[in-house]
Amino acid sequence: MAKENNKIIINEEEITTVLAKDIGFSGTLKFKTSLMIKGDFNGEIKSEGKLVIGPDANVKATITAKEIISYGKTEGNITALQNVILAASAKQTGDIITPNLVMEGGSLFNGKAIMGENTKANPSAQNNPNSQQNHQNQQNNNKQNFQHKN
Fold first, then answer.
1. Long-range contacts for 36-43 (Cβ within 8 Å, ≥24 apart)?
2. Mean pLDDT over all residues of the chain?
3. How far is residue 48 from each of residues 6, 60, 89, 140, measured CA to CA in Å?
4. How far apart, in whole angstroms, are the C-alpha atoms of residue 96 and residue 101?
5. What's the pLDDT tens digit per position in 53-66?
6. pTM for this structure?
7. How many of the other CB atoms lie within 10 Å of CB of 32?
8. DSSP string, 79-139
């Protein structure tokens, strides 16, 4: 990403598919390589590749991808197998699960971040409410066990 006269310039040569600024889309998006959203999207995104959210994009979705780079506005939980990058212009509302989170100065993030090696092994379990409840129950049990031993 480069800036020229305070305008964000994104190299689109690495991106195989682009949903243009004038496209509004609702539903489920599934792709294997890379996708950039420049317009509005509402629904669910599942990918084995890279998702780029453009600076003028408005995305309301549950997102699972290998890598997510956001320059725009996103509402919903995000799971990335490798990393999430929130550029200075990004606004994220919702939880992020990833082994690596990069936030540029100026980006806004309202949610919970879950990071670490465990997120690489089984990110889908982190999105499952039952798994999250089981994780919380195990943490509570560990705290109780620790307290009883003292």
1. 36/10, 36/12, 37/72
2. 81
3. 32, 19, 25, 34
4. 8
5. 999 999 999 999 99
6. 0.75
7. 10
8. EEEEEEEE-TT-EEES-EE-S-EEE-TT-EEES-EE-SHHHHH-HHHHH-HHHHHHHHHHH
Low-confidence ranges of the chain (pLDDT < 50): 121-150
Q: Where are the alpha helices (DSSP H) in 12-122?
A: 117-121
Looking at residue 88, its amino acid is A
Q: Rounded to 5 degrees, what are φ and ψ at 84?
A: -125, 130
- Output the six-digit token pair for 57: 């994009």
Determine the residue type at 141: N
- Secondary element (H or E) of residue 41: strand 40-47
3-state secondary structure of 3: strand
Find tokens 């943490």 and name the residue. Answer: 139
H/E run at residue 30: strand 24-31
